[in-house]
Amino acid sequence: MSTNALPLSQPIVDGPRGAKPKRITPARIGVYAFLVLSALFFLLPLWVMIVTSLKGMPEIRLGHLFNWPAELTFDPWIKAWDTACTGRDCNGLKPGFWNSVKITLLSVPVSIVVAMINGYALSFWRYKGSELLFAVLIFGAFVPYQVVIYPLIIGLREVGLFATLPGIVVVHTIFGMPILTLLYRNFFASLPAELFKAGRVDGAGFWGIFFRIMLPMSVPITIVAVILQTTGIWNDFLFGTVFAGRENMPMTVQLNNIVTTTTGIREYNVNMAATILTAAVPLVVYFVSGKWFVRGIAAGAVKG
Amino acid sequence: MSQVAQGGGAAAVPASSAFPVRRRRKFNYQSVLGTLPMIITAIGVFVICIIFSVIWSFTNSKVFPNFNFVGLAQYQRLWTTDRWLISVQNVVIFGALSMVFGMVFGYLLAVFMDQRIKQEDLFRSIFLYPFAMSLVVTGLVWQWMFDPNLGIQAAVRQIGWTSFSLAPLVNKETALYGVVLGGLWNGVGVTMAIMLAGLRGVDAEIWKAAKVDGIPTWKTYLFIVLPMMRGAIATAFILQLTGVVRVFDIVIAMTQGGPGISTQVPAIYVIQHITDRANVGQGMAAATMMLLPVLLLIVVQGLLQWNAKRKQGRA
Amino acid sequence: MKSLLSAVALTAAALMSSTAVHAADVEVIHWWTSGGEQAAVSVFAREFDASGDKWVDTAIAGGENARSATLQRILGGDPPGAAQFNPGRQYEELIAGGQLLDLTALAEKEGWEKLIRPASISSACLVDGKWWCVPVNIHSWNWAWASTAAFKKAGVELPTSFDDFLAKAPKLKEAGIIPFAIGGESWQINGAFGVLQTSLLGLEKREKILKDKDLELAKAEMPAVFTKWREFKQWSDEGAANRNWNDTTNLVVTDQAGMQIMGDWARGEFGVAGKQPGVDYACLALPVDAPTVSTGGDIFLFPKQSDPAVEEAQLKLASQMISPRVQALFNNAKGSMPVRDDVDMSLADDCMKKGLEIIKNPANIAEDAGRWLSNDTTGQMNDLVAQFWSDDTMTVDAAVAKYVEILQNAD
Amino acid sequence: MASSVSIRDLSLNFGNVKVLQHLDLEVEQGEFIVLLGPSGCGKSTLLNCIAGLLDVSDGQIHITGKNVTWAEPSERGIGMVFQSYALYPQMTVEKNLSFGLRVARMPKDEIDKRVARASEILQIQPLLQRKPVELSGGQRQRVAIGRALVRDVEVYLFDEPLSNLDAKLRSDLRVEIKRLHQRLKNTMIYVTHDQIEAMTLADRIAIMKNGIIQQLDDPHTIYNKPVNLFVAGFIGSPSMNFINGTLDGSNFTVPGYGVIPLSGYQFVAQKNGSTVLGIRPEHIALGEDARKLPVQIETEIEIVEPMGSDTIAWTKIGGQALTFRAAAEVALAPGQKVLIGFEPARGSVFESESGNRI
User: Fold this and answer.
1) Angle of CA points D191, D196, D201, to nearest 5°
2) D118 pLDDT exceeds 70?
3) Would you say A207 and A121 are in contact if contact means Cβ atoms under 8 Å apart?
4) Domain boundary assignment for chain B
5) What residues of chain C lie within 8 A of the CB of A88, using their CB?
6) Burial environment of residue B296 by CB neighbours within 10 A (0 to 12, 13 to 18, 19 or more)
7) Of A197, A205, A217, the CB nearest to D90
8) CB D322, CB D241: distance < 8 Å
9) Is there contact between D and C if contact means ≥3 C-beta pairs under 8 Å?
10) How far apart are CA A274 and CA A75, in angstroms?
11) B276 lies within 8 A of chain A by CB
12) Where are the domains of chain A?
């Protein structure tokens, strides 16, 4: 190729022509520097948790918080999952895991469906007082959970749901309601009202429009709701101890039993492994569906 | 289509047709039925609970609630208790700092994420994942990171920088800031996601207009786009505010309110009093005080909205 | 491997117990989740299961969490069969509300009132002539734990008094040792403060202040306690603010710290680490010149049940818990003192034996302040002492004034 | 002819705001009525009331002889087409069309028949299996019309159906709607703010302002005999010239110009005093044509706007602006002196104060 002989810098024509060259500008470097530094800040604790959970206790005592384990061990993970003691039982986190799965699988759909209907009704089928109810609900989002525990215990006792699986589902539905209803109300309010009118002209009623028109349209926001609820319910400790009943104690109760007590040296490696194991389900949910999370929020939650 | 009209015609005219109502407000019984869980929750749980909380705050309830009224004694004690005063001060500082920094950092991250960067998915996941951790776990991890003998400080000193100091939790002047940092780590990702969604929702023509007008990118973000994101900001604001008012777990996990009582917050005060300290009356008085500003906020917001609607209606 | 074996053993035991005819299940809520505690609670469980009934274990870490759960379960109409509490006034309302099983008949039959010593232990359960709970052990706060190696490294002898310790602290510090180990939780700070108070004032004045609420005496005597307490603070380390009690004890176990003031449950930490009393560490009953024992500990309540079979099982459990055999097994495992004297504690280490000697003389008994003060009042004192500890700008006068105010308003 | 839609004494209030006030409207069977007016005049609100999507505060609505004031939208025998199409995004075109029929549990073969017919009429057969996002704006609006068609009802309601389309599509679809009306001969009520749509489509136009129908007439009458200043100004482009002056008998005096005799104008009422003379730009003739007309004015051209098909020229009469429409071929230039003229009989005279035609 004869062009090789030409110095590259030699202009072929006068002035710029063709595609503008993509240059690495200082601004671009700045963008990435900021993002990478931020990412480090967010990743650091996770890194520490992971490496610590793979170290033996003697190595942990040496410090070197951030170092990769000199001697890799998976024992803490096995112990956390299978044999760590949570009271008299030494079965690790395992039994609680399945309880948490049970509670989450039941509570997430129920709480979301209820909130969805609320948001739908508040957007399209307002009735006298519905706005006031909504205001009360939003107010409820600020009430410290513990304040309502006593009345709630009495209420659930009266209907025979205290310390049962349906009981804990009801409790999660109640406390998920304010934010989820807000989410769905904003979403439905952002849909064109004509769609609703068209449905009514077509003869669909409250439930017809809900199930056949609105429900299929609310997939994006429902992903957001599922993510928020799964995280919230999976991580719940307070309601689990009070309302789930002994047979249904969630994983977080066992995590608490493992993490907050030990004789002698705290087994940081087991604690860390247990912590990661407990957080695993919501973590997976986030990593898998993070993309849809932003899209779902964009689909309605941000429209004032 | 006459058959449809006839088919439902009779049923459609409700019983109220018996008298010649000219002004009729349709009662959507299905809507009421559908929102029955909300009605029960709003009235049965929140309204009743709040009413009882307020009532019990005027009693000397101990382990269990009772109705021996003692007037304002609980409030008197509350507002002369150092710990409560510090708690109130702390929640204000904590709230202001975490909301301001949360919003600023969240918006910055969103703006930087919006630069058509490579690996957007990866960065987003990294910023979001802490939210999947419970606040208790967040607190535990950061407590450990800040442990002067085990955490970051020790690690940095080990590599030679022996005067390095980063252990905010052990000092009563700085402990609260350590908690704020832990909270930010947990929650900024969600603010970022909301802000990013808001950014993506801004009309592309705004950008073109700004570019043609020669407005620098940062100015466009700050002065043009940001004010357009009212919805996103409001959503992030409410989400953060509910966290701030109820802040509890993370403080317990990180400092247990210490050193001393320097990082106490109102929610811990309430909870301790209605449980282990067995003074439900005192706890409820504190809870009532906690709800007051929120109630005020909602009433003001409601009035503003009502007023705006009325004005709009007139025009 | 070991865990596998134990799992097999457990399964086998479970199978066997399920084939045995058991009369009733009794659910027990407790907060004994750590290694040593768990071994101790297993004594109760094994004994109970062996008798044909079934111990259903609900462990909830943290006394506050566990006690709250019990109260909430009672309120929710789903009370546990038995629940751990600390002696105090928290269950007064349960008694008044008729929510607890009356153990009087059993107690009279077995003569608990005569067996249990000291009297202040039985008074926690014996209210107006009726028995409402079973005390299972005695824990004394009034101990200090010192590392022999640490003091040796600093080139000084073990301390003989608080002033002596404060005099030797600079030497320890020079040797790179944390002189005074303490954790940041407010109950640790207030507990150690209480020991200091007992030691400086003596039992009589302490009782006058805390039980009789003698405000004038408090005004006169408390400044000295607060002043001394501030002296201790300067010999603690900066990590103190954020440490739970067993991590703190571990500093003494590993000779990184000189001394810790902590209840006798700390002994277990030394034991687990294989340390010998008198050789590796010293246990000082406080005050050193006139040692006392405080009567903290654990009790079990038996909330009322609807099923008579369960009630019968509850009574059986209560009877077992206080029987000499179980008392011996349990307290040896737990590292606490039994509530009765006729118990074989020959396996106990020197420190416990020391305590068992002291407890014999009623004059040495420092009654647990929790018997006199409500949790509310104790909590307020915790807050005050923790605040004073962390805030050097708070004057002694201000602290004393607050202290007196809390006493004055105590219910 | 039988009355198809009959609105009697209809009022609607939102709180204190009166959106519709004591409104009466009789629509005959097969008639194409256009509700025309500026935004906020209540025309869409009225349509929503007819559809049953808004609950009225007072009055009655009858459709095909039945009182449907309180009936559900689907029971009123109406079909409706919306501005934003309002197609159900998750359903195919076919499902969109058949949704209402399926809700009404109609037999499947009947549904198929109706969908086939509607899609044949609108020529959307190839689109039946597509989702709305895969359609262009024009196609979407056809589907939206089709959704109304399958209902096979007496009355079709259109709520600004063409407003979201570009100019070319809009005129195409306009013709199509006209053709549809001619073919189906159903009653159609059509809301728009576009006067060309109104003029071209309507049998009668109802011009609305502030919740009140100002004039209800055929397009010709609306154009030539507007009942008040509002209607006169709203219809026509460029809009009607309004010349302020005083009337004495049939002599109209324009200050700064002189007297214009209004001979030949048919007064509906005789009122002297402050008056407005309205004359459409296209009714003003130029040059030789003007010499034949009763009123002739000498004036000077100020601005010339060539439109292609014709030219709009701006001039003045006694200091008041006056525009006229001239043929495109006529050469006009600013500053040019011209003679213009008109016939008073083609003008309109309004009382200044009330704005009503006299």
Assistant:
1) 60
2) yes
3) no
4) 4-38+40-54, 72-278
5) 38, 41-42, 45, 55, 57, 59
6) exposed
7) A217
8) yes
9) no
10) 12
11) no
12) 23-73, 94-301
**Phi and psi angles of residue C178, each rounded to the nearest 5 degrees, phi first:** -75, 115
Of B23 and D357, more confident: D357
Amino acid occupying residue C238: E
Q: Is B137 near chain A, with CB under 8 Å?
A: yes
pLDDT digits (tens, 9 = 90+) for B48-99: 888 888 899 999 888 888 888 998 989 999 998 889 999 999 999 999 999 9
Taking the CA of residue A243 and the nearest CA in chain C, the distance in Å comes to 9
* Nearest-Cα residue of chain D relative to residue A215: D90
Contact across the interface for B4 and D77, Cβ inside 8 Å: yes
Instruction: Nearest chain D residue to B24 by CA: give it.
Output: D57
Predicted confidence band at C345 (pLDDT cuts at 50, 70, 90)?
confident
Q: What is the pLDDT of residues D171-227, one digit of tens each?
A: 889 998 999 999 889 999 999 999 899 999 999 999 999 889 999 999 999 999 999
What long-range pairs does B299-307 form, CB within 8 A, spacing at least 24? B302/A135
Q: What is the ipTM of this complex?
A: 0.80
Evaluate the omega torsion of the peptide bond into residue D238 and state whether it is cis, within 30 degrees of 0.
yes
| Mean per-residue pLDDT, D306-324 | 90
Domains of chain C: 11-139+297-362 (3.40.190.10), 143-294+364-409 (3.40.190.10)
Select A94-301's CATH number: 1.10.3720.10, 3.10.20.280, 1.10.10.10, 1.25.40.340.
1.10.3720.10
The 8-class DSSP code of residue C139 comes to B
Which residue, among A35, A40, A100, A272, would best test binding to B if mutated, counting the most B CBs under 10 Å from its CB? Answer: A35
The answer to whether C15 and C49 are in contact (CB under 8 A) is no
- Is the pLDDT confidence value at B311 over 80? no
Structure tokens at D350: 């309004």
Residues of chain C with Cβ-Cβ distance to A264 below 8 Å are: 35, 246, 250, 253, 269, 272-273
C110 CA: distance to closest CA in chain B (Å): 32
**pLDDT by residue (tens digit) across B110-140?**
988 888 888 888 888 899 889 888 888 888 8
CB contacts < 8 A, A to B, total: 259
Q: Which of B60, B277, B280, B284 to mutate to test the interface with C (most CBs of C within 10 A)?
A: B277
User: What are the DSSP calls for C108-134, one per residue?
Assistant: HHHTHHHHB-SHHHHTTTEETTEE-EE
pLDDT interval class at A257 (50, 70, 90): confident
Residue D14 near chain B (CB below 8 Å): yes
CA distance A81 to chain C (A): 13
Chains C and A touch (3+ CB pairs under 8 A): yes
- Please, which pLDDT band fits residue D242 given cuts at 50, 70 and 90? very high
Distance of CA A34 to the CA centre of its chain: 25
pLDDT bin (cut points 50, 70, 90) of residue A104 is very high
Q: What percent of chain D has pLDDT over 70?
A: 99
Q: What angle is formed at CA C110 by the lines to CA C107 and CA C112, rounded to 5 degrees?
A: 55
Statement: B72-278 belongs to CATH 1.10.3720.10: yes
- Tell me the CA distances in angstroms from A42 to A46, A59, B127, B248, D52, one per residue in order: 8, 25, 6, 22, 55
Selected residue of A88, A150, A159, A256 to mutate for chain C interface (largest C Cβ count, 10 A):
A88
Average pLDDT, chain B: 81
**Residue C346 has which token pair?**
């020959």
Shortest Cα distance from C46 to chain B (angstroms)?
A: 30
Instruction: Using an 8 Å CB-CB cutoff, list chain D residues near B310.
Output: 15
**Looking at CA atoms only, how far is residue D213 from chain A in angstroms?**
25
For each of the domains in chain D, give its residue range(s) and CATH number, in order of start: 3-225 (3.40.50.300), 233-351 (2.40.50.140)
